[in-house]
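Morning!

This is the sequence you dropped in the shared folder:
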Amino acid sequence: MEQRQEYEISTIGIHWRKLDEDVSFESFTYDEAEPSAFQRFFLEHPEINIAEFSKAIGLNPSLMRNYINGFKKPSREREQLILDRIHELGKIYSEVSFAS
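The structure's back. Tokens below.
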């Protein structure tokens, strides 16, 4: 309860630092309050370095974080670009061999 009472309001939303939680004002207009499949993927895979992943596909890391946190929604084309890179990485990882 204490942590929930410590929040910051900005022009784009509400942030609870101690809970590491954000709610964008824009998200109040979304049809669904649950994270999208896109958001859920990145939220469930914190091992992905968002800054480096974003740079690899030519995307601003702050914008990518806004997509993940629900402050903004990627276009279908942008979402497909991101998904294509995830698939490329999966293929690269699946071909790794440490045999000499």
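Headline: The CA atoms of residues 23 and 58 lie 26 Å apart.

More detail when I'm at my desk.
O.
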